[in-house]
């Protein structure tokens, strides 16, 4: 190989320099060393295999899980003059592609992981000159990842049949545990892992419990000029939010899979072109759209995982200007997530549980949010970030163990069948016909919470649900979950973060 990567970068892509870890990754690939590149979205992963693909002899086979994504990539590669093709079920020109591949007329060939399992494909690979295997979205190979695809497991045996061909796995989303698993599953040595910086210092993170979420989001919208994305969990919720937000006077659109495709495309185009529009969307929105000046991303409910949260909030502030990410969560989000968890295959439950508890730690912390977020991706901040709600408001933590014990006792002594409202009545001694009839006024837990402690009851209730110390049954009644015992026995403690007073009283000035 004579060409110099930097010169080639300029010649083919028109860029003057590498970004972040690109050069490191490209160097390893050119040295034919197996590599796993973990780089956030937008960091420029594609270039890490596209550049070697044009520099090395033979064709680079790229495994990618989504046909739509492959076609985007194909267009982009062809636009800079790379000889590329896709080999998928929807391509009409497969025979021609196969011929070009065999003839050494291709730099890049995109295929879906399903191909890997076919004997035909292995024969095809054996009949063509190969330069590199690139595995995109490599977290799909891990059951610990959030998007496990069994077909990815067939890639390692396939690649093993071509031991002389180097491999490059790429992913944007992997915690340290998943990362190690990806490397193992794809036969990449630990020293072949290259992790780029994940910090997005211009994004301010803020996370609060839901109170009236539409109102909370309307406040974010009112406080933050510029384009924004609001993520809701259901189609109906996106529409409701769009309606509510329209009253703020900002242009608002909804975006979800249930909309007529023409309407959806128009809403997206309008948003991309606008300087102050708010789009209320399900999480499908944002993949592949390039809008650098998004000033805020708000979540009207818990995201699926820390990776998803990072990915979704990462759509804010790509231009580097100050931006905000607001997340509003409820204990019901955790309860629902646990329900879903019970439905996944047993071998995936441990991963799901870990994901949920990592989210719990992020939303509940009184410490620096960015620190927790980055630690999840294996990065340690030298000091607190100074640009998250907790750093800016320094919330106080209180030990709420005793209140939690009182709450749990009241649930237990009333027979694990009443809702939170009733439990609060019992604890604060509010006599009603119901409490009288039930004989609950004679219980030892009757009227044992008063004064400042009353304000802790709702957050304690939320925290108990989040920790799975309490569960809600089909009738809305509370019953013990597996984490109740340790709290009651005093083996576990419950510390709660009290939001800073000034945040509760009014709005803070917008950062932009
Ligand atoms: P990822 O797959 O990591 O999300 P992409 O490969 O889509 O990121 O790249 C994101 C954007 O960055 C693209 O528009 C790409 O052209 C651009 N890009 C990549 N590398 C460079 C570079 N070295 N210099 C300038 N722009 C780059
Ligand atoms: Zn911070």
TrEMBL record:
Reactions mediated catalytically: Couples ATP hydrolysis with the unwinding of duplex DNA by translocating in the 3'-5' direction
SMART domains: DEXDc, HELICc, HRDC, RQC
Enzyme Commission code: 5.6.2.4
One of the GO biological process terms: DNA repair
Main EC class the enzyme belongs to: isomerase
GO CC, one annotated term: replisome
Domain (Helicase C-terminal): residue spans on this chain: 216-360
MF GO annotations: 3'-5' DNA helicase activity; ATP binding; DNA binding; four-way junction helicase activity; hydrolase activity; metal ion binding
Keyword Heme: no
Superkingdom of source: Bacteria
Keywords associated with the record: ATP-binding, DNA damage, DNA recombination, DNA repair, DNA-binding, Helicase, Hydrolase, Isomerase, Metal-binding, Nucleotide-binding, Zinc
All residue ranges annotated as the Helicase ATP-binding domain in the record: 26-192
Cofactor needs: Mg(2+); Zn(2+)
PANTHER family: ATP-DEPENDENT DNA HELICASE Q1, DNA HELICASE RECQ FAMILY MEMBER
Similarity section: Belongs to the helicase family. RecQ subfamily.
Protein name as it appears in the record: DNA helicase RecQ
């Amino acid at each position: 190989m004579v060409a110099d990567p930097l010169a080639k970068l300029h010649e083919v892509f028109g860029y003057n320099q590498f970004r972040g870890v690109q050069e490191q990754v490209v160097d390893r690939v050119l040295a034919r060393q197996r590599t796993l590149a973990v780089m956030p979205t937008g960091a420029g992963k594609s270039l890490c295999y596209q550049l070697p693909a044009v520099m090395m002899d033979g064709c680079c086979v790229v495994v990618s899980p989504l046909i739509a994504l492959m076609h985007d990539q194909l267009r982009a590669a062809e636009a800079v003059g790379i000889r590329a093709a896709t080999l998928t079920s929807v391509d009409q020109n497969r025979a021609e592609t196969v011929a070009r591949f065999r003839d050494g007329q291709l730099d890049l060939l995109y295929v879906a992981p399903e191909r890997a399992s076919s004997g035909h494909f292995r024969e095809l690979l054996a009949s063509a000159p190969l330069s590199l295997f690139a595995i995109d979205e490599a977290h799909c190979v891990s059951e610990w990842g959030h998007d496990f695809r069994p077909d990815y497991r067939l890639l390692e045996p396939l690649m093993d049949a071509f031991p002389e061909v180097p491999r490059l796995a790429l992913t944007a989303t992997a915690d340290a545990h998943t990362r190690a698993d990806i490397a193992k599953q794809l036969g990449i040595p630990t020293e072949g892992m290259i992790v780029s910086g994940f910090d997005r210092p211009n994004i301010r993170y803020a996370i609060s419990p839901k109170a009236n979420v539409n109102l909370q989001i309307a406040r974010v919208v009112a406080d933050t000029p510029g384009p924004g994305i609001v993520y809701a969990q259901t189609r109906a919720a996106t529409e409701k939010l769009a309606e509510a937000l329209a009253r703020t006077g900002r242009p608002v659109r909804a975006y979800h899979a249930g909309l007529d495709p023409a309407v959806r495309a128009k809403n997206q185009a309008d948003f991309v072109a606008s300087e102050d529009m708010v789009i209320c969307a399900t999480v499908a929105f944002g993949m592949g759209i390039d809008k650098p000046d998004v000033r805020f991303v708000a979540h009207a409910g818990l995201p699926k995982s820390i990776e998803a949260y990072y990915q979704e909030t990462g759509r804010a502030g790509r231009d580097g200007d100050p931006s905000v990410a607001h997340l509003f969560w409820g204990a019901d989000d955790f309860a629902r997530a646990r329900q879903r968890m019970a439905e996944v295959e047993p071998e995936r439950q441990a991963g799901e549980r870990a994901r949920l508890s990592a989210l719990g730690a992020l939303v509940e912390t009184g410490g620096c949010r960015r620190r927790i977020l980055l630690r999840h991706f294996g990065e340690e901040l030298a000091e607190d970030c100074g640009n998250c709600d907790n750093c800016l408001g320094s919330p106080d933590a209180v030990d709420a163990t005793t209140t939690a014990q009182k709450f749990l006792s009241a649930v237990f002594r009333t027979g694990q069948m009443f809702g939170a409202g009733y439990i609060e009545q019992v604890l604060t001694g509010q006599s009603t016909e119901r409490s009288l009839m039930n004989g609950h006024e004679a219980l030892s837990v009757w009227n044992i919470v008063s004064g400042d402690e009353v304000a802790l009851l709702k957050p304690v209730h939320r925290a108990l649900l989040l920790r799975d110390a309490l569960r809600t049954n089909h009738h809305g009644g509370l019953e013990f979950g597996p984490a109740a015992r340790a709290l009651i026995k005093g083996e576990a403690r419950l510390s709660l973060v009290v939001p800073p007073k000034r945040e509760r009283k009014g709005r803070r000035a917008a950062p932009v």
